[in-house]
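Question (not urgent): is this output format expected?
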Amino acid sequence: MVTNMEKNRGIIISLAVLAIVVYSYLMYASLQFTSAANGALINTLTPALIMLFSLIFLREKVSTFQFLGLITSFIGVLIVLTKGNLLQLFLTHYNKGDALMFLAVLCWTAYSLVVKKAKGIPPITLVAMIAIVGTILLIPFLFMQPLQYKEVTSFGIIGIVYLGVFPAVGSFIFWNQGIKMLGAGKAGITMNLLPVFTAIIAVILGQGLVISQIVGGLLTIAGMILTSLKRKQVSPEKSMAPQLNV
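Got this back:
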């Protein structure tokens, strides 16, 4: 009997290449040339691209509420990132790092579509297999750019452990499960909450919060609520009523 793991072998390899190898490399490489602000701005394209490609390749239906929610969240995120100065989008200098970040966004979009094809594998098991395959594929890169042991600090080790536990494991488990439950398009819009949570953490760490960030955060959350709304289904009795009156 062919196991679920064997059936999904090609999908697991594809997911490992997209998320662990290509996406991670492009994202970290882009931040060597561009700012975190630019990277965050480009990442706001992710939900729209996921929804668009879900519509094209997965035939997922996009409701009016989802579309309005996407636009509302997108505007809210831009307000948070630019602190209310939307003209900053056109005044910002973009470079090759931004191009790499855009490629990373496309990679994550592809991952979000492909992961839905994995059938019959528990979320934790799927993430474990993706991580194992991805680690094996990354081994050759270790020799291309050897680790500089003298530059490793205790703070750096803590950062690596944090990245390994939360973004690399926890987020993948919740993301994969969310896509299976909501669909790639609706789940993708939740990525617009990243700048909002970043602003909240910044406040907790003692940084100030301006009015535009509060307004942008509320718009982002409002967009999330819009995407969760469903059309009222018309009952068979009501749908037949006009015909009975003819």
